[in-house]
Design brief:
The chain has 108 residues and is of the alpha+beta class. It has one domain: Ubiquitin-like (UB roll), CATH 3.10.20. It is 18% helix and 24% strand. It contains 3 helices and 5 strands; from the N terminus they run ββααβββα. A 5-stranded mixed sheet has the order 2-1-5-3-4. A hairpin with a 7-residue loop joins strand 3 and strand 4. It starts with 13 loop residues before the first strand and ends in a 12-residue tail after the last helix. The model has no long low-confidence stretch (mean pLDDT 90).
């Protein structure tokens, strides 16, 4: 019998991040897409994500707090950081996280 692999990297604590204006706690030391899977396990697991930078379905815009530069990244390659604020998300991610009650993006 095989032992299933752990999907999260080992962590000692949860860090606070903000997704579309709503604050959540997620495992430190993990990629953002895994952190999103922590919040919504079944929905993210069923998403059309490649997990290796090819599909672009996990694209986000983020900053690291008030007054910091907004950047674009792929959440499958972006390490979660305390205080990170995700301001825009690709439609696939937003759909997978719909049950978290996130605010709609402006103009959408």
């Amino acid at each position: 019998m095989s032992i299933p692999a752990l999907i999260f990297r080992p962590y000692d604590k949860l860090v606070k991040i903000t997704l579309a204006g709503k604050e959540f706690e997620v495992p430190e030391g993990n990629m953002l897409l895994r952190a999103m899977q922590y919040l919504s396990p079944e929905e993210v697991a069923c998403g059309r994500f490649c997990w290796n930078e090819e599909c672009q379905y996990c694209r986000v815009s983020f900053d690291l707090g008030e007054g910091t530069q907004v950047r674009a990244a792929l959440s499958c390659k972006l390490m979660v950081q305390e205080g990170m604020r995700i301001t825009e998300m690709a439609q696939e991610i937003r759909y997978c996280l719909r049950e978290l009650g996130l605010k709609k993006e402006e103009g959408k």
